[in-house]
Amino acid sequence: MMQVFDEAPEGIQKAPHEPRMLAAGYQVALREVVFSDVHDKESLMLALLRGLALTDNFGRNWDALYDVLTDPEARPAKLGLLLRDFEHFCHRHPHLSGELERVLLDAQRDAAEHGRQLWLLSEELESDPANW
């Protein structure tokens, strides 16, 4: 069976079952960003800071996020971002999620141009769609 890490990263993809174990097998560093409590840009940047294990000097803006994701000194050559509760976040905050998606996809393209890989994996938490 074909696994997500068998192919070059392309856009935001559905996370595989057991993404952590699978990533470990492919030697992909996996970072988890949880969107459940994101309600504005500030809480989004905080979720990214936590999920990417950034220091407090992270600029908390789109350019700083792009720089962090594309910095070969700071990021492994094979990186996966597990975007937890991402679809719900997109439904709740279409403008904010659109901006985030643009930065993530730009960083993914930059990584590919430099022989690096950045997987963007959307994983939904078990919940009732009525709570969207």
Automatic annotation (TrEMBL):
<protein>
    <submittedName>
        <fullName>Barstar family protein</fullName>
    </submittedName>
</protein>
<comment type="similarity">
    <text>Belongs to the barstar family.</text>
</comment>
<dbReference type="InterPro" id="IPR000468">
    <property type="entry name" value="Barstar"/>
</dbReference>
<dbReference type="Pfam" id="PF01337">
    <property type="entry name" value="Barstar"/>
</dbReference>
<feature type="domain" description="Barstar (barnase inhibitor)">
    <location>
        <begin position="30"/>
        <end position="121"/>
    </location>
</feature>
<dbReference type="InterPro" id="IPR035905">
    <property type="entry name" value="Barstar-like_sf"/>
</dbReference>
